[in-house]
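wait is this the right file?? whatever heres the structure
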């Protein structure tokens, strides 16, 4: 038994706060990290690793050992996890490269304090670059009940370039439930496709990296075949007795896939309009645009449908690509009598 296997085995945890996480497995962690090819982007001692809700730190340790960040912040506001993470930091003893923060990862104030006020990490701003930001990597566990909603907010930040994404294309490795992975990665044409899957495709390049055995049935063969994720034993998933063993890792790389190299999203589409149109069209996801576009507002069909390409007009909402949706959004924006969506549309989630 290795030192770290014994370290995690000797620590007891009787409460999970609704999270699921991998038991420590040096070989599996190594396979996952190598599959991600992180060493091709992040040079040792030249980037920061921000770990949000790292639970016991079983994957966090491997990321630190294999990538050697300048500073690795383990941010969690759950008392029992904080104590375990502090023990990990003390046992690891790699100088001040590992920092345990008791801030709340859900709060935006936590990041302002961490970066602007305390300067614990200092990522570079790389807004002009089309590639992934090489100075900051995010690793997070959002497998609890609130995780899906928070991840959807983070996806909105990928489009709007705020929160951590103000630094430019910050890559995020996110542990989620199988149902969350399925919702966000559903393919074009699937009857299960919803607006967050379209937004995921429009504003990120995302892949399914690894799943537990029981997750395969939930995710479905189409998604499994497309991404060919690593599959690990359900026995490696730590969770409370009231939860299942489904767990998946998604690699999210922000990228504006609806713009050309010379444009930004803000230059060609009002994201408030995008959000409004996408939400409205997915109310009836299986209807074609002939029926759905008139539902955007009174008179919308009269203006938009004659100007819409026949290819897009005959599609149902679940069949729309991000660029099909962009065509509709741009026409809606040009409509002289479009409603004031700021009055009619209350933002719930991106």
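ok assuming it is, sequence goes like this
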């Amino acid at each position: 038994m290795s030192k770290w296997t014994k370290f995690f085995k000797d620590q007891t945890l009787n409460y999970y706060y609704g999270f699921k996480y991998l038991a420590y497995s040096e070989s599996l962690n190594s396979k996952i990290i190598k599959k991600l090819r992180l060493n091709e982007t992040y040079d040792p001692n030249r980037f920061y690793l921000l770990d949000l809700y790292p639970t016991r730190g079983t994957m966090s340790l491997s990321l630190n050992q294999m990538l050697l960040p300048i500073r690795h912040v383990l941010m969690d506001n759950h008392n029992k996890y904080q104590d375990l993470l502090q023990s990990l930091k003390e046992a690891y003893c790699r100088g001040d490269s590992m920092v345990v923060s008791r801030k709340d990862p859900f709060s935006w104030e936590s990041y302002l304090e961490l970066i602007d006020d305390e300067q614990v990490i200092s990522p570079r701003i790389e807004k002009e670059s089309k590639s992934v930001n090489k100075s900051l990597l995010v690793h997070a566990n959002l497998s609890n009940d609130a995780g899906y909603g928070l991840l959807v907010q983070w996806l909105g930040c990928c489009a709007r370039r705020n929160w951590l994404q103000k630094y430019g294309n910050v890559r995020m490795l996110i542990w989620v439930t199988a149902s969350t992975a399925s919702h966000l990665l559903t393919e074009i044409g699937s009857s299960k496709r919803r607006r967050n899957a379209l937004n995921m495709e429009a504003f990120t390049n995302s892949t399914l990296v690894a799943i537990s055995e029981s997750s395969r049935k939930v995710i479905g063969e189409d998604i499994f075949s497309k991404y060919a994720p690593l599959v690990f034993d359900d026995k490696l998933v730590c969770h409370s007795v009231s939860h299942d063993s489904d767990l998946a890792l998604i690699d999210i790389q922000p990228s504006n896939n609806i713009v050309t190299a010379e444009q930004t999203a803000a230059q060609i589409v009002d994201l408030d309009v995008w959000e409004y149109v996408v939400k409205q069209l997915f109310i009836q996801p299986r209807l074609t645009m002939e029926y759905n576009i008139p539902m955007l507002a009174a008179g919308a069909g009269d203006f938009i449908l004659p100007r819409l390409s026949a290819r897009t007009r005959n599609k149902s909402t679940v069949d729309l690509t991000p660029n099909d949706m962009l065509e509709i959004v741009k026409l809606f924006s040009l409509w002289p009598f479009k409603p004031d969506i700021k009055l009619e549309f209350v933002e719930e989630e991106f």
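DSSP finds 17 helices and ten strands in the chain. so i think its the right one actually
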